[in-house]
Design a protein that fits this description.
Number of helices: 12
Number of strands: 14
Helix content: 25-40%
Shape: flat
Oligomer: single chain
Order of helices and strands: HEHHEEHEHEHHEEEHHEHEEHEEEH
Mean pLDDT: 76
Radius of gyration: 28 Å
Strand content: 25-35%
Length: 460
């Protein structure tokens, strides 16, 4: 019995060690051109990416040896399978060459953050500039009287739980109409007309859901009266400014047996269980729920934070020579991974260029100006779309001109500088810290294992 007890302790300790080893502490270094708030934020993002590569790369080396994968391929994909759980800025400040540099100490986890790890998810959302979400729902139920919408309420609750900013479009429209009346009363007819035209962006991405259901009647299960419903839901997330689908989840029509005896309430109960992913519903709904949708969105964002997001840039009146010059020049800009010419029409029509980039809209504007000179000016932009006009185009130059601006970016961390941050400390770029807890537990486990082995040998 004593031997078995010792073995149990050893196995528990080994399990704890393996769990703790899922996270590693590393140092990451990032830099960005400039010496302002934008450069600081971009350098911090670069430092966190560097930490993920180092932390996840360490884990992948060990798994690669076991599974025989190609190491080079795994290292390329490290950014998609890691996330920053927590971090602290060690040093930040301007360095030679006109750059701003940030050094962080970060705890990095392998894989995707869990839906219940709220601190990590909220930090990830902040790094994605806190995108505003609008929830759009269509419901169609048969066999019951009309019921109050529930799909939107469930999705809104889940989105707010992980820290997403949910926009109520109806309330936003009412606010814009009130402000338009105020501007009109103040004599600012241009501003009033712009608000009434509804041209400003109220949200950054859309979560849409189409819910269908049928109340099939009652049945008795072990003498208990139950309601039977069939429910299906299709959910997807879209960037509206580019039309790109971020994620999509389809739950096929599923039979749900509810203990609620009211038909309309039974439908509400069944719909909630399907959307939230009740494991008792069986294999048809496994891995298909609103939680799966949010996980797919966050996984997409993790990849975009490392490799860049897709941005559409539209140019009116671009000639072929300028197009060649611009596409070649953008490929040489740091922070732009790929450049695709999606559409080109000579004359006074639009040319569309798609970028894979980590740059902010104003940084893209500066890059375009640097390459083309003063041929184009930025007319409007959102997070993922920019519109450029020739400088000779008079649109938007009048006294009542309206420029559509997105919500201001929010800095991830405000770290006040101290006197110790005036000089860059001399530390190796690839430093790696070994977690203390796993090492101590490992020593304890080895000691206990030695005692167990000695006891077994002695009994024999």
């Amino acid at each position: 019995m004593q031997v078995r007890s010792f073995l149990t302790i050893v196995l528990l300790l080994i399990g704890i060690i393996c769990f703790a080893a899922g996270e590693v502490q590393v140092q990451g270094v990032g830099r960005a051109a400039g010496n302002d708030g934008v450069a600081r934020e971009q350098a911090l993002e670069d430092a966190l990416r560097d930490a993920v590569r180092k932390g996840v790369g360490v884990n992948l080396i060990s798994s690669t040896r076991v599974r025989g994968f190609v190491l080079g391929h795994d290292q390329v994909l490290t950014s998609s399978f890691g996330y920053v759980k927590d971090y602290k800025i060690i040093w930040e400040g301007p360095v030679k060459g006109g750059f701003y540099q940030v050094r962080v100490s970060a705890w990095v986890g392998k894989g995707e953050p869990g839906h219940d790890d709220l601190m990590v998810l909220r930090q990830l959302i902040l790094r994605k500039k806190s995108p505003r979400v609008m929830i759009k729902v269509a419901e169609k139920f048969t066999g019951i009287k009309s019921t109050a919408p529930i799909t939107a309420a469930i999705l809104r609750e889940m989105a707010m739980k992980i820290g997403l900013e949910v926009v109520d479009v109806t309330e936003s429209d009412a606010t814009m109409k009130r402000l338009a009346r105020r501007d009109h009363a103040a004599g600012d007819k241009g501003a009033a007309a712009a608000r009434a035209a509804d041209i400003t962006s109220k949200y950054d991405f859309v979560i849409s859901a189409d819910s269908t259901g049928e109340f099939s009647g009652f049945e008795e299960v072990y003498g208990i009266k139950t309601a039977v419903c069939h429910v299906g839901v299709e959910m997807k997330a879209i960037w509206p400014d580019t039309g790109e689908t971020i994620a999509q989840v389809t739950v096929p029509s599923t039979e749900v047996v509810s203990s609620v005896t009211s038909p309309s309430q039974a439908m509400r109960d069944s719909l909630r269980r399907v959307i939230e992913g009740d494991p008792r519903l069986g294999w048809k709904t496994r891995g298909k729920s609103a939680e799966s949708l949010f996980k797919a969105i966050l996984a997409k964002w993790i990849t975009e934070l490392d490799r860049g997001r897709k941005v559409l840039a539209e140019f009116k009146g671009m000639d072929e020579h300028t197009l060649d010059k611009l596409s070649a020049g953008l490929k040489r800009i740091s922070g732009i991974g790929n450049v695709w010419v999606r559409e080109f029409v000579a004359g006074n029509l639009y040319t569309t260029i798609e970028l894979q980039t980590r740059l902010e809209p104003m940084q893209i504007k500066k890059a375009v100006k640097k390459i083309t000179g003063d041929k184009f000016r930025l007319y409007s932009f959102t997070r993922n779309r920019l519109e450029f006009l020739p400088v000779t185009d008079s649109r938007g130059k009048g006294a009542n001109a309206v420029t559509v601006q997105p919500q201001p970016s929010r800095t991830v961390v405000e770290s006040p500088k101290t006197d110790t941050q005036k000089a860059e400390p001399e530390k190796p770029e690839t430093s790696f810290s070994i977690p203390v807890v796993p090492v101590v537990l490992g020593i304890i486990a080895l000691a206990v294992f030695g005692l167990v082995l000695a006891a077994v040998v002695k009994r024999r």
